[in-house]
């Protein structure tokens, strides 16, 4: 029954795409439970999106209930992205995919403005390489991406980045260079966080797990001197700091 359901989904997607062959398609979104049978079809659907110069691409894949039985994440095929088509991409959403090192001639995502990564399997080096290629990125969300290493983007500053969210990721340190960052959201264990040149940071929200409140609060207040509104929550303890000119208000609640 499951295989019939998967085949029915494949047939329906192919039928819809067949009707739009040769046309310009602004957005393609695929949402389904991943299994190895889908790999060739997913690759073909990416080829279709590139051929139509799609601006928005979303592969919202969900892990199967038995991950060991069905194998690993879907490997994102960077080699299928030609330079002309990839320049059209403005928004990219990927879930349950694996990043391997892109080909040597990969130009990155030169016009990507929004990137949403969820349950992506990758390494620190590969993620850093990809993010550094997104020079026009304005919005970035990374959720449940377990690097077990530093998350660092400083070699190529993300000078256009305005919104950054990092939640439920196993990382040892976060370091970004983003001069136009206005909003930062973090949920996870207490780790060192450095946001270089973030003089325009207006709102920062932190949900730390397993941290000493005084230590976390002192570290953030010293490390984010330009933030206007800071919210820090550890369990039932909550700290809010609001800066107005050279004066700041501090609220603490239990």
From TrEMBL:
<dbReference type="InterPro" id="IPR053772">
    <property type="entry name" value="At1g61320/At1g61330-like"/>
</dbReference>
<feature type="domain" description="At1g61320/AtMIF1 LRR">
    <location>
        <begin position="16"/>
        <end position="234"/>
    </location>
</feature>
<dbReference type="InterPro" id="IPR055357">
    <property type="entry name" value="LRR_At1g61320_AtMIF1"/>
</dbReference>
<dbReference type="InterPro" id="IPR032675">
    <property type="entry name" value="LRR_dom_sf"/>
</dbReference>
<dbReference type="Pfam" id="PF23622">
    <property type="entry name" value="LRR_At1g61320_AtMIF1"/>
</dbReference>
<protein>
    <recommendedName>
        <fullName>At1g61320/AtMIF1 LRR domain-containing protein</fullName>
    </recommendedName>
</protein>
């Amino acid at each position: 029954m499951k295989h019939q359901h998967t085949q029915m989904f494949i047939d329906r997607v192919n039928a819809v795409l067949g009707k739009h062959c040769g046309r310009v398609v602004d957005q393609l979104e695929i949402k389904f439970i991943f299994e190895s049978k889908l790999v060739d079809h997913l690759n073909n659907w990416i080829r279709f999106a590139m051929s139509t110069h799609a601006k928005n691409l979303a592969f919202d894949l969900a892990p199967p209930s038995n991950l060991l039985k069905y194998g690993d994440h879907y490997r994102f095929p960077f080699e299928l992205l030609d330079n002309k088509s990839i320049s059209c991409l403005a928004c990219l959403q990927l879930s349950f995919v694996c990043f391997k090192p892109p080909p040597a001639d990969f130009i990155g995502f030169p016009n990507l403005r929004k990137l949403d990564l969820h349950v992506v399997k990758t390494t620190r080096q590969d993620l850093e390489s990809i993010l550094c290629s997104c020079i026009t990125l304005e919005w970035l969300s990374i959720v449940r991406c377990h690097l077990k290493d530093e998350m660092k983007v400083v070699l190529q500053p993300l000078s256009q980045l305005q919104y950054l969210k990092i939640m439920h990721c196993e990382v040892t340190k976060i370091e970004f260079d983003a001069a136009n960052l206005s909003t930062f959201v973090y949920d996870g264990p207490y780790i060192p966080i450095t946001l270089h040149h973030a003089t325009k940071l207006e709102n920062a929200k932190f949900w730390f797990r397993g941290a000493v409140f005084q230590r976390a609060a002192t570290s953030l207040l010293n490390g984010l001197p330009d933030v206007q509104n800071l919210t820090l929550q550890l369990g039932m303890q909550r700290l809010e700091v609001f800066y107005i000119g050279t004066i700041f208000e501090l609220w603490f609640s239990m």
